[in-house]
Amino acid sequence: MPSLDVNLPDVDWGPPVAALVRIAIIIVVGIVVRWLANRAIDRIVARASVINHDRPTSGERRQQRAQTIGSLLKSVTTVVIVAIVFVTALDQVNYNIAPIIASAGIVGVALGFGAQNLVKDYLNGVFMILEDQYGVGDVVDLGEASGTVESVGLRVTRLRDVNGTVWYVRNGEVLRAGNSSQNWARTVLDITVAYDSDLDQVQQILQEEAESMYADQRFHDVIIEEPEVWGVERFDRDGVVVRVVLKTAPLQQWLVARTMRQRIKARFDAVGIRIPTSFIPGPDLGGEA
């Protein structure tokens, strides 16, 4: 009768099991480190985005900046931790990681050349947010487009102009940014009067109307400094241009300008000061009798 004894090879399960245990520990440590890092970032963001109730607009702006930077930090932290865990785990199974590192370097260089515009957009977006060049609610001029900022991302800024058109501007294409909403603004009015007008009287009226607005309780928090009449600015074809300026709160310069124009027009009509207009005669449609 044949024997049923089979000689099984002796297998040492020690090293593979130990390697798997070490890999599991590495993964767990990576998860814990990522959780701790994200928790620390959340605390920093929460502390940085506390809204000042005296200046709610600036608080919302700071909150958005903090949240955007926090999201960026979380993404970078996750990528770095995953890369470290992956390379360390491969090393535990005695896999030669040198080719992987070299390949990663080559892929990085290739992506750098192929997606340099994308990288440029993201880098510019990071610096715009860090430097607080503009935020949601600001009125800005970005060269190709201007309007109110509705969203600031790491790659694209979204604007809405006065006509309601939405513009998407790549951050890498922003070479200059004019912000009409930071800290304070200025209303600059150039008032044209006829050449036969009494300039002293004109400047006195402008000063009185500007000071009257400054003293008005409705504009107490709008006009933040005493207005100034800078005097004769230039001579135009239609008349003499006199300039008056008022320092205002951000985004209030247009309201002050409209109100000042209405007041000045009423005062000029009352005292008989003429605001000249260019008249272009049309064709004579009556013909000769």
From TrEMBL:
Name of this protein: Mechanosensitive ion channel family protein
Presence of the UniProt keyword Membrane in the record: yes
Gene3D superfamilies, per database record: 1.10.287.1260, 2.30.30.60, 3.30.70.100
Membrane as UniProt keyword: yes
Residue ranges occupied by any Mechanosensitive ion channel transmembrane helices 2/3 domain in the UniProt entry: 76-116
Cellular compartment(s): Cell membrane
Membrane protein topology class: Multi-pass membrane protein
GO cellular component assignments: plasma membrane
Lineage: Bacteria, Bacillati, Actinomycetota, Actinomycetes, Propionibacteriales
Source species: Aeromicrobium terrae
Coiled coil regions in record: none
Sequence intervals crossing the membrane: 20-37, 71-90, 96-119
A family per Pfam: MS_channel_3rd
Family: Belongs to the MscS (TC 1.A.23) family.
Entry keyword set: Cell membrane, Membrane, Transmembrane, Transmembrane helix
Molecular function in Gene Ontology: mechanosensitive monoatomic ion channel activity
